[in-house]
Predict the structure.
Amino acid sequence: MQQNLETFLGCDNSYEESSIVIFGAPFDSTTSYRPGTRFASKKMRAESYGLETYSPSQDLDLEDESIKIFDAGDIELPFGDPTQALKMLENFSTEILEDKKIPLMIGGEHLVSLSGIRAAHKFFEDLSIVHFDAHTDLREEYLGVRFSHATVIRRAWDLLGDGKIFQFGIRSGLREEFQFAKEHTSLQKFDFTNLEKVFGKRVYLTIDLDVLDPSIFPGTGTPEPGGVSFLDLLKSALQVIQNCDVVACDLVELSPPYDPSGNSTAVALKILREMLLALSQK
């Protein structure tokens, strides 16, 4: 893999020496409300240079010699073909996992997560999913389409089955989705209570940033009032990384056009930095 010309702050190591690989999935063709997440990864790279590489909370620095992260850039995807886009992203994640590195995908809408889950499941049959989100994403279909950001966790369930999906922060969805969750997933409404139930598991961590309250994070396609705080999300994400075997992860649903102030991008970047530093210690 060739290094991207413009990298996330502090993520300019070579592929060979790195243990973590970041890449962008600029895809939002199934977004049901407000598109724009395709611009997230490029905007985050450009804005990352306003962020310090050092984390006071973890006492770690992206420039530490022991921390090696490679930025592979954005994958060029066909916007009108979700099936092909998912396959391309799955192949890319598979290559990273084959080389025993951790893929961290920046979306993009939430459907892109299915590609990373599929790739990780090839290598880890005991894989579980930890899902932070405002929405259940458990619809069987949306407007007659089975592959959508509104169905992504249902498609993941098709692959993993019962007892492998743990959802937190959920506060929106159809009644049928919540009924499905009672029988097939572990769903925690509104917050991260009982997060410790996932500790010790091998997991794919997927963070839909609309789990945050829109007063904190307005830059998203489907804002949902009543969300969690920045510190609660950050604490919970770090707890998962520090107490689970996280083999792959993603950060999705930042839509920069809906927050011209740049505050939402700054929030996403801070979470990304802390995730990278925590992953580097595993």
Summary: The longest strand covers residues 245-252. The domain at 20-280 is CATH 3.40.800.10 (Arginase; Chain A). The CA atoms of residues 93 and 172 lie 30 Å apart.
